[in-house]
Design brief:
With about 190 residues, the protein is α+β, with helices and mostly antiparallel strands. It has five helices and four strands. A hairpin with a 7-residue loop joins strand 2 and strand 3. The chain is globular and about 45 Å long.
């Protein structure tokens, strides 16, 4: 599917109570607060479909305003709180949240489909912190796994109802963040 076809199909799938698209000034302010630009297709989803509420699971979080998939925080506030969180004294192995990774669609139980804004195509990374420790391995690196190589693939699979949620996917004994680039080194 082309980006235009994805946008049109996502609009058709929206619930009637979905918020309107994000205004240009909210998109600009969101990118200013984040400190980076959103990949083009993600930006279009917010600008042309709705300010959240699209996508699988509980749907996409709105940017600053818009839909809320988690608590009372939008995408920008959630990202900034994770960036500002730093070290966790109760979990000293926590490496911190990767730079440029925005949590978009919430599946529940702290599991998110995230978009890598360091990638022009918006690679989708699943964050699942629930069983990050494998036998003999005390590492958070397994909490981040590639879900789809591009946001377009992710959206197309969602629109075809071909995006299974598989929290129990087998993981290597001690997973490494190989292939995630410098932002994923933990």
């Amino acid at each position: 599917m082309t980006d235009d076809e994805l946008i049109a199909a996502a609009r058709d799938r929206l619930a009637p109570e979905a918020p309107p698209p994000a205004a240009a000034d909210e998109l600009a302010e969101a990118e200013r607060q984040l400190g980076f630009s959103l990949p083009a297709l993600l930006r279009r989803m917010y600008a042309e479909v709705a300010n959240g509420a699209w996508g699988p699971g509980y749907g996409a979080n709105g940017l600053i305003g818009g839909a809320r998939a988690d608590l009372d925080r939008g995408l920008v506030a959630w990202y900034r709180s994770m960036q500002d969180g730093g070290a966790d004294p109760e979990e000293p192995a926590w490496p911190g949240w990767p730079e440029g990774l925005v949590a978009v669609c919430h599946w529940g139980c702290a599991i998110w489909s995230c978009v890598d804004c360091n990638s022009d195509v918006g690679r989708v990374i699943r964050f699942d912190p629930n069983d990050y420790v494998s036998p003999g391995c005390r590492s958070w690196s397994g909490a981040w796994t590639e879900e789809r190589p591009t946001l377009a693939d992710f959206l197309a699979d969602w629109l075809r109802d071909d995006l299974p949620f598989t929290p129990d996917s087998p993981q290597p004994a001690c997973p490494t963040p190989a292939g995630f680039g410098d932002a994923w080194r933990v």
